[in-house]
TrEMBL record:
<dbReference type="InterPro" id="IPR009920">
    <property type="entry name" value="HEPPP_synth_su1"/>
</dbReference>
<dbReference type="Pfam" id="PF07307">
    <property type="entry name" value="HEPPP_synt_1"/>
</dbReference>
<protein>
    <submittedName>
        <fullName>Heptaprenyl diphosphate synthase component 1</fullName>
    </submittedName>
</protein>
C-alpha cells in the first residue's frame, strides 16, 4: 500500500500566509480522509491516482464548509481585525469549495463532482434541520453530537459505492466512529476556548441539566466567561465528553478485534491523536 500523503498534497491549497495570519482555520479532516484513502487504495480501479484525488477533493470541500461555519454572524459592528477575519473566512471557504471542482474536472471525474455536489446539498439540509430544532430548543445533547457526526461523515460516505463489497461493512463502521471522534475532539476544543454558542454540546448539556435560573442565563446570553466555566465544572461537561470519546475508541477497538492484523495495526494507529486528548493539560474543563 502506498503511503498516505493527502495532508501534504492539501498544503498548497490551504496554507496561505494572509489567511493564517489574520484568521483561524478549521482542522484538516485527517481521520476521514485517511480512511477514504485506505479503502480506495484497496481497489484496483482507484489506483490510478484517484485514491488520493478523491480524499483530497473531499477534504477541501469539507474545509470550505467548515470555514464558512466559523464566520462570525454577530450583529454588532465588528472591529477592523474581526471584519478582516470574517472576509477572509468567506473568501477561503469559497476558494476551498471551488478547488474540488477544478481538481475533479481536470481529472475527468465528473461522476465524483456529481456525488459530492449532492452530498453538499445533503449536508446543508442537515444543518438547516439542526438549526430549526435549536431555534425550538428541541436539541438533546446526544442528538446534537449524533447530528454533527452525520454532517461530518456525509461527504466521505458518498464514496461508499466505490468501496469494495468485502470492505464496505468495515468502512461504514469505522467512518461512523471516527466521525464521532472528530466531533468530540472539536467539542473539547470549543470547551477549552469557552465558546458560549448554541452550536456546542456544552450549551445543550447545560440547558438540559441546569436550574431554571441557569437556563434563563443561557438563553438570554448573559453569562460571562467565569460563570460559564463554573457551570461547565458544576455539570462536569469536560469529563462527560472524555467519557464519550473513550467509549467511541472502545467501539473502534471492538470493530477491529474482528479484522485482520493489517487492519488492526493500520486503523488502530488512527486513534492515537484522540488518545492524546486524555493526557493533554487543558484539553477540557475538569475538576482537580
Amino acid at each position: 500500500m502506498k503511503p498516505y500523503r493527502v495532508p501534504q498534497l492539501a498544503k498548497k491549497y490551504v496554507e496561505y500566509d494572509m489567511i493564517l495570519q489574520h484568521t483561524d482555520m478549521p482542522s484538516f479532516p485527517d481521520s476521514r480522509a485517511r480512511l477514504l484513502f485506505a479503502f480506495l487504495n484497496r481497489s484496483d480501479e482507484q489506483k490510478d491516482g484517484r485514491d488520493e484525488l478523491y480524499p483530497l477533493a473531499t477534504s477541501l470541500v469539507q474545509m470550505g464548509l467548515d470555514t464558512h461555519d466559523m464566520i462570525d454572524t454577530a450583529k454588532e459592528m465588528p472591529s477592523p481585525s474581526k471584519m478582516r477575519s470574517r472576509q477572509l473566512k468567506v473568501l477561503a471557504g469559497d476558494y476551498f469549495s471551488g478547488r474540488f471542482y477544478q481538481l475533479l474536472a481536470q481529472a475527468g471525474s465528473i461522476d465524483a463532482v456529481s456525488i459530492l455536489s449532492k452530498a453538499i446539498c445533503d449536508v446543508n439540509e442537515s444543518k438547516m434541520s439542526m438549526y430549526h430544532s435549536m431555534c425550538k430548543l428541541l436539541m438533546p445533547p446526544q442528538e446534537y453530537l449524533n447530528g454533527m457526526a452525520v454532517i461530518k461523515k456525509r461527504l466521505f460516505h458518498s464514496f461508499t459505492p466505490w468501496i469494495g463489497d468485502s470492505d464496505r461493512r468495515l468502512w461504514e463502521s469505522l467512518l461512523q466512529e471516527f466521525s464521532l471522534c472528530d466531533t468530540l475532539a472539536e467539542e473539547l476544543t470549543r470547551l477549552e476556548a469557552a465558546e458560549r454558542s448554541r452550536f456546542s454540546f456544552a450549551f445543550w448539556r447545560l440547558l438540559e441539566k441546569g436550574t431554571a435560573e441557569e437556563r434563563d442565563l443561557l438563553l438570554n446570553e448573559t453569562l460571562d466567561g467565569k460563570s460559564w466555566r463554573q457551570l461547565l465544572l458544576k455539570y462536569k461537561v469536560g469529563d462527560l465528553l472524555l467519557d464519550k470519546l473513550d467509549a467511541v475508541i472502545g467501539r473502534i477497538r471492538e470493530i477491529l478485534s474482528e479484522a485482520d492484523d493489517r487492519d488492526r495495526e493500520e486503523f488502530g494507529r488512527m486513534t492515537e491523536p484522540f488518545l492524546r486528548l486524555f493526557h493533554t493539560p487543558g484539553t477540557a474543563v475538569r475538576e482537580g
